[in-house]
Amino acid sequence: MSQRIQRAYQITKTFLSYGLDEIIPARWLPWSIRVGRYALFWMPNRHKQKSAGARLRLALESLGPVWVKFGQMLSTRRDLLPPDIANELAKLQDKVKAFPGEKAQQLIEKALDLKSIDDAFDDFSVHPLASASIAQVHTARLKRGDDAGADVVIKVIRPDIRTSIDADLRLMETLAGVLARHLPDGRRLKPKEVVKEYRKTLLDELDLLREAGNAIQLKRNFDDSPLLYIPTVYSDYSRHNVMVMERIDGIPVSDVDTLMAMGVNMKILAERGVEVFFTQVFRDSFFHADMHPGNIFVSRDNPDNPSYLGIDFGIVGTLNRDDKRYLAENFLAFFNRDYRKVAELHVDSGWVPAHINVEDFESAIRTVCEPIFNKPLADISFGHVLVNLFNTARRFEMEVQPQLVLLQKTLLYVEGLGRTLYPQLDLWKTAKPFLEKWMQEQLGWRAVVRSVKENAPFWAEKLPEMPTLLYDYLKHQQPHAQAQQQLLAELRQAQKLQTRQTWWATITGGLIISTTLLFVANQPDWLVALVAATTAVSGVVAWRRTN
């Protein structure tokens, strides 16, 4: 408990010393929080000269890896943040001090049940090759088995990081609950949902067996492909906190000077980056969702026909069939400038409420998208377009689709990659043929043939059972039909009874009114008595009909 209180104090002090309380307008905060801020007068804003976005970025960096990762995720949610803050958060980098290599060696030996690291590896480097917020990487060479002599990297999760992550996540959830209750825009910003999404993403990254499975899946998807190479994972040496995979020798994709010096065809390289993205999303429905420059390399082989090398598969995204189809149709409609189709697709998919005026939505989309066509990537900002689209979507009550958040983040990475490698790249012309071919395969005769082939084993299995199933259906159909006829007869009888009850109730009510009017008008007593008697008889009949 004392550790949690101490951590909460440290986080509070960091937030206040960077003036993060000033980012939220005072009128949004309850009086208790404002009073508490004045009570902590010894924690003034020490960075008043910096912008709000810069202060937020620096505060997250000082709080450590969990908060850095959170800031990186927030930077992709441009629907929730002002552009200046989102741009600052996009600058966050994982520059984390390495933990001792001897400790990493102990963790590897314990995970793989080795008496010594030399039992399985030669040339193990105690000095890490790279260090990030979640794990660090050491080099070695396999010592035994069919792959003996292979150069490998060993990824090790930081010791005790789960404890600190759980503590920080609990504090984040508490803070998110406060913001959701007290911020006027808390419902739309969904702070609790954002933290929940972050928890899942972060905990997935802590499981290296999951990452190993992701890598194996991606490698199978791009087996023998000239577009992307995924290193081999040595599953026998992989555990929840340790993963061993092939060491690759590539050029960082951000090292443009070296790529140019080697004579790499930058146009083909940029176009293949777009093709890799759309292939993963629309062909495989399984895409690498952390494609920042630190995780992408370029092969040194064949510069005229370059290919990519990928690493770090802790975060992947998937799409179901409906989302994938709607996305493909949206992209094609955008490329064809059919904004009416885009608006209708958003309504049909449920992304925008049905009561929204489609004509107005179409006009708003046209206003955002039309200026960017027929321009090279150097002259447009896809991030800026996304911001404008999010503002438009918010105006038309479109809620963010959680399953598309990782896709949005990956698309921004692809844009940055293309802008760096070949600014003249025409993103639309590169992607359109691929999407048109994919749509033909999904909706044309090829889709019918593929569906028949996929379902043929199931039909072949069920075909011998068809005569028995048909006999059972016909056998049970007659009792069901008789039961339905009986129910219909009872319903008709009930309707007739209800009609008679209503009729007698109406007559009785009319007679009561008539009796009252005759009595008030001082009509002859015999007439009043006659109508009253008739009313009584009618009431008795109505009561008996009802019961």
Automatic annotation (TrEMBL):
Primary role: Is probably a protein kinase regulator of UbiI activity which is involved in aerobic coenzyme Q (ubiquinone) biosynthesis.
Protein name, entry field: Probable protein kinase UbiB
Catalytic residues (positions): D290
UniProt organism field: Pseudidiomarina gelatinasegens
Keywords: ATP-binding, Cell inner membrane, Cell membrane, Kinase, Membrane, Nucleotide-binding, Transferase, Transmembrane, Transmembrane helix, Ubiquinone, Ubiquinone biosynthesis
Transmembrane segments: 502-520, 526-543
Cell compartments where the protein resides: Cell membrane
Name of the encoding gene: ubiB
UniProt xrefs under InterPro entries: ABC1_dom, Kinase-like_dom_sf, UbiB, UbiB_bact, UbiB_kinase
PANTHER family on file: CHAPERONE-ACTIVITY OF BC1 COMPLEX CABC1 -RELATED, PROTEIN ACTIVITY OF BC1 COMPLEX KINASE 7, CHLOROPLASTIC
Family the UniProt entry places it in: Belongs to the ABC1 family. UbiB subfamily.
Top EC class, one word: transferase
Domain ABC1 atypical kinase-like per the UniProt entry, residue ranges: 91-346
